[in-house]
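Researcher: We're teaching a course module on how sequence relates to structure. For the next exercise, students receive a sequence and then see the predicted structure as tokens, so they can try to spot secondary structure elements on their own. Here is the exercise chain.
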Amino acid sequence: MKTLWTSLLGAACCLTLATVQADESINAQTLIDRAQIEDLITHYYYNFGRENAQNFADFYAEDAELILGTRSYKGREGIESAYGRGAGAANQNRDRPARPQRYSFNVTISNPLIVVHGDTATSQVIFTEYVIQNQGDPLQVTTQGREYATFVRTAAGWRYKTRQIVGGDDYPEGWTG
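Model: And here is the predicted structure for the students to work with:
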């Protein structure tokens, strides 16, 4: 009987510790922060393919970095140039082909994993690009990849600090999400 009570007491302690740990890492503020970060990511991806898209650099902190494969763009001006805007964009993007006309272009995100660390956060999401060339054509999946990002809380709200796009299943070098 003593062994049964000891086992039950041990199980109750484990459940209590698990509940305390969950309460310490997830609270009302971290849930709000996670929702705000997910909204930022969703608005960012919703911007792709839009005629009058919001300036992508507005989603980033002043000293942020965007990493696309082997190319790195630092600061808001660098990020603007990555999207064909800002000083020097014409020279940096002259080898980029013109965007083809298409009926529909959408980018979705899935499996968001967002972890808040006070005034910073990390996220991992999967993105998928869908295209319909002409009305009535079948839907095509053109690209799928992963985004690894860090965020910082600013006076304007949560902003990307780093955003790295990679293909495949490997984590980017040095990732500590």
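Model: If you want an answer key for the exercise: The domain at 27-166 is CATH 3.10.450.50 (Nuclear Transport Factor 2; Chain: A,). Confidence is low (pLDDT under 50) at residues 4-24, 87-94.
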